[in-house]
Amino acid sequence: MTWVQTAIDAAALGSQYALYALGIAILFGIMNLINFAQGEYIMAAQYTMLVFVGWNLGLPIILAASLVVAIVLALLTERVAFRPIRGATPATLLITSFAVSYLLQNIATLGFTALPQAFNLAPELNDVIEFRGVFIVKLSLVTITLVAALLGGLAAFLRWTSTGAEMRAAAEDFEMARVMGVRANRVVGVAFAFAGLFAAVAAFLLAVQTGYVAPTIGLTPVLYAFIATILGGVGSLVGPVIAGFILGSLTVVLQVTLPQSWLPYRDALVFACVFVILVARPQGIVVVRSRIVRV
Amino acid sequence: MSVRHRITEALSLFVGLGILITTVTALAAAGPTSLRLTGMTMLINLIIVVAVYVFVGNSGVFSFGTLFFVQVGAYVGALLITPTAIKNAAYPELYDTLREVQAGNVAATVIAAFAAMLVALVVGAPLMRLSGITAALGTFVVLVMGNVIFTNWEKGTGGSPGLSGIPQTEIWTILVLALIAVAIACIFQQTTWCRRLRATREDEIAARAIGVYVARERMIAFMLSAFIAAIAGVAFGQAQQGIFPNAFYLEATFVTLAMLVVGGMRSLTGAVVGAIALSVLAEALSRLQNGVTIRGITVDIPDGSQQVGFALAMLAVLLLRPDGLTGGRELSLRPFRRLRRPSESAAA
């Protein structure tokens, strides 16, 4: 039953991409900011894990520490780099986040050198379980359940708490929300904290999967996050999640079906498909009605 | 505006920028070989930034794809300029035609530029109808796809180690190329197409309402941008004597975008000033990394701080002066106008 295998792999990779996408989408919806630094929050969380693994502390402490570091870094970058330019043109926001990302990457190079460094985090998750002829990596199951739980938690938060309602209002129309009494700084702060949270979880899954960290580790996640966010539809959270799953499934399906000589071009083909989808449906998968520009 | 006025505008801008660029180049050329190489890198970056500006500055649409066209130009140029003997010895896996084909420097540059323009036509056709951020993502996808293809297509491009053995060139040749690029941009700025494009930058819907065909105007700028970028690519190959795919990827994209933003995204002067200013900064930081002694006090910053300093400078400009160093203004010889006869300046 190889299709079951493929389906599980697709779900696992799709969950990872959806997680990356959420980190970008949550900020894009509220502030029109594509935060390239999201990749560096992931990188910072991973370096924290590297250091703490070196000190031989238990897994819960390692996870908690990386979570704290990611969230603090996210809030710090918000306060220092993004708050002064709030409301600037999208191009300025984009370039600023690019600059912050570059800065953090090079600070990490200063501190940890540019070389990849290996470390062993929860290696038992890389074990394979066999179930009626299907081989499942434990990490895949953890990924799927963890991301599903996170998505459920986020949905509940947005639906049932007052801060969640404020965030939804801000994503729909920031100025109007402020007129209604929503405090901008708090909403933006919570959004960045969430971005840090998603980054920390993504960092954990990535670290267990690849076993190493380097200053450039955040580039690929941010790339896929960026693509999934636009593909999914600007301003919505559901869209990027769906797009993340589509990207993951596409990658896995191509990996399984492409002939050997074409495999190195797998990513190029995925991006070609993205290109085609973008041209066919530029507004994205999920269109948020409040964002349609009316003339 | 009258044609005469447009010509004088373009000419005065070109003369002003030309003097600036030539002066800085002469300073670099007067120094040791390392400074010459830095000067060549600065000029190449300047050409790339001008290419970025021609599209991004005039249309307001962000593009990450310029380095892709630099890459196309670089590879076409390298494959044409490198002597067949070297190609046969070093890259037996390349296609036969690629190894045999040969052209002089000028012919190679022209062919590379037109090749890039053709690629831009194909790649840009679907992109030009997209709105701002989606188009930006489209160009990002193009950049990444290009990197994957150039890295893996060993028979066409030599794969990730790239091509080397490209003959060297003089700093003055690259200066000429830079001046040509600036001239093209100056002329383009005064054309009707560019005016229409700027209208779409200011207010796309209003521009459409007065009959501007947005996709076409953007496409013209996109193709021109690719043309100029390819010139930079050919020059890059000859300056470095070797090219490889990762030289045209994210780091270079960041550096050139930074130069444009720091200088000022909305004017050609901004592009030029940004390129020169950040190149000077990079050189200064690089020297500090190697240790500099001022009156007996040695200043030495750790390796890798150059990029950190670069990013900090960029952030400082973005946060304190978001319109860039020039604030969108163009260099012009307007103050000199008053020296002319009053009847002339009144008619202009």
Note the main attributes of this structure.
heterodimer, A: 295 residues, mainly alpha, two-stranded antiparallel ribbon, 11 helices, 4 strands, 4% strand, globular, B: 348 residues, two-stranded antiparallel sheet, disordered C terminus
Give structural notes:
The complex is a heterodimer of chains A (295) and B (348). With 295 residues, chain A is mostly helical. Chain A contains eleven helices and four strands. Chain A has helices at 2-31, 38-54, 59-82, 90-112, 138-160, 162-172, 174-179, 184-210, 219-232, 238-257, 266-280, and strands at residues 117-118, 128-131, 134-137, 212-213. Chain A has a two-stranded antiparallel ribbon. Chain A has a two-stranded antiparallel ribbon with strand order 2-3. In chain A, β2 and β3 form a beta hairpin. In chain A, α1 packs antiparallel against α8, α2 packs antiparallel against α3 and α2 crosses α8 (184-210). Chain A is globular, with a radius of gyration of 19 Å. The model of chain A has no long low-confidence stretch (mean pLDDT 88). Chain B is mostly helical. Chain B has helices spanning 3-29, 33-59, 66-81, 84-90, 96-100, 105-127, 132-152, 154-157, 171-189, 192-202, 204-209, 214-240, 250-263, 268-290, 305-320, 334-337, 342-347, and strands at residues 163-164, 242-243, 292-294, 297-299. A two-stranded antiparallel ribbon of chain B has the order 1-2. A two-stranded antiparallel sheet of chain B has the order 3-4. In chain B, a hairpin with a 2-residue loop joins β3 and β4. In chain B, α3 (66-81) packs across α12 (214-240) and α9 (171-189) runs antiparallel to α12 (214-240). Chain B is globular and about 60 Å long. The N and C termini of chain B lie close together (9 Å). Mean pLDDT of chain B is 85; it is low at 343-348. The chains are: A mainly alpha (295), B mainly alpha (348). The interface between A and B is large, with 41 and 42 residues.
